[in-house]
Amino acid sequence: MVAAKMLGLSLRTLQRWEASACGEDCRCGPHSRPGNALSEAERALVVAVATSPTFRDLAASQIVPILADAGVYVASERSFYRILAQERLMTHRGKARKAAHRRPTEHKADGPNQVWSWDITYLKSPVRGSFYYLYLVVDVWSRKIVGWKVHECESPELAKLLIEEAVQREGADAGRLVLHSDNGGPMKGATLLATLLSLGIVASFSRPRVSDDNPYSEALFRTVKYRPEYPEGPFGSLEDARAWVEAFVRWYNEEHRHSAIRFITPAQRHGGGQLAVLRGRKEVYEEARRNRPERWSGQTRNWEPIGEVILNPSNCSPTPHDRKESA
C-alpha cells in the first residue's frame, strides 16, 4: 500500500489489476517511439565516441564540451549518460579510483591497560585565534584517564613523552597494549611511531575524517567541555588551563560514576575495586526486595560488572546485549 501511494495509485486500482488475468501493471504507456528519440545509428555513435581511444578515459561531462569545441554535436550530456548506463559502460573512467578506507581493526579489552585511546582538543587561550592543546589518553576498558597534558602546540615529540610517562606510571605491559588515535599529524609523527615500535605498543588508527572510529576520546572531550565548571570564555593562562584539567581528571577518575560501566568510577574499575562495590549494591537491592516483596515484579537491577569492551567492533561481533557479562 505504501508503494502504491508513492506511485500515485489507489487501492482499488491495485485490486482490479490483481483480479485481472495478467495480475500486473495494467497502465497504458506510450505505444509509439518518441519522435525525437535517437536512432539506433545515433546510439551506436554515442557508444563508439565514448569508448574511442580519445575519450574512453573521460566522463561524458568532459566529452560533450570537447566535441562542441571541435564543432561537433553527437548528443546531449544527459543522453550520453543514459546510453552508457543502458549499455553498462558507466564504470569509473581513468586511473583514479575512489579511496576505499576499510574499517579500523577491531580491538578487544577484558581488563585495564590493554587498549588505550588518545586525541588532542583545543582550549581557548586569551589570544584570539590562538589555543592551548589538551592531550588526553583514556583506557577503553575502565574509562580511566591514564595520561594528560596541556601544551601550547601540537607535537609528536610531546605526544611521545606523554605516552611514555603513562606507560611507566600505570605499570602497563607495553607488549600487550594497543594505542588508538585518529589520523592527525601528532598521531602519525615519526617520533611517536618510533617510540611505540620500540616499546612494542601496537598503533591503531581511525579512518580519515571519521570521528566515530575514536568514540571514547570524542565522548571524553564532550564531557570535558560540558562540565558546569568549564569556563564560558578563554582560560586566563596556560597555568590556569592546566589547573582546571588537573581538577577535572581527579573528579572524572575518582568521583564520576560512569554510566557505561554500571555507574562506578573509572578508578574503581581500573584498580579492581568494582566487584566489591557492585556486590554491595546487589545486596542492598536484594535486602530491599526481601523487606517489601510486593514492590518487586521481577528481578532487581542488574549490578553485574561489565565484561569485555570492543573498540570498533566488526559487523560479525556480538552486540553488547548479546555478549555475556563477566568479571
Topology (elements, then pairings):
Layout (H helix, E strand, L loop, with lengths): L1 H6 L3 H9 L20 H11 L9 H10 L7 H10 L20 E3 L5 E10 L6 E9 L5 E7 L4 H15 L7 E4 L8 H10 L2 E4 L9 H11 L12 H17 L11 H6 L2 H18 L17 E3 L16
Parallel strand pairs: 2-5, 5-6
Antiparallel strand pairs: 1-7, 2-3, 3-4
Helix pairs in contact: 4-5, 6-7
Unreliable runs, pLDDT <50, ≥5 residues? Answer: 319-327
Helix content: 25-40%
Number of strands: 7
Structural class: alpha/beta
Average pLDDT, rounded to a whole number, is 87
Kindly provide the name of the CATH class of the domain at 108-255. Alpha Beta
User: What is the CATH topology assignment of the domain at 108-255?
Assistant: Nucleotidyltransferase, domain 5
Roughly how many Å apart are the termini?
50 Å
Strand content: 5-15%
Largest sheet: 5 strands, mixed
Q: What is Rg?
A: 31 Å
The dominant shape is: extended
Name of the CATH homologous superfamily of the domain at 108-255:
Ribonuclease H-like superfamily/Ribonuclease H
Question: In order across it, which strands form the biggest sheet?
Answer: 4-3-2-5-6
Q: Write the CATH architecture name of the domain at 108-255.
A: 2-Layer Sandwich
Number of helices: 11
String of helices and strands: HHHHHEEEEHEHEHHHHE
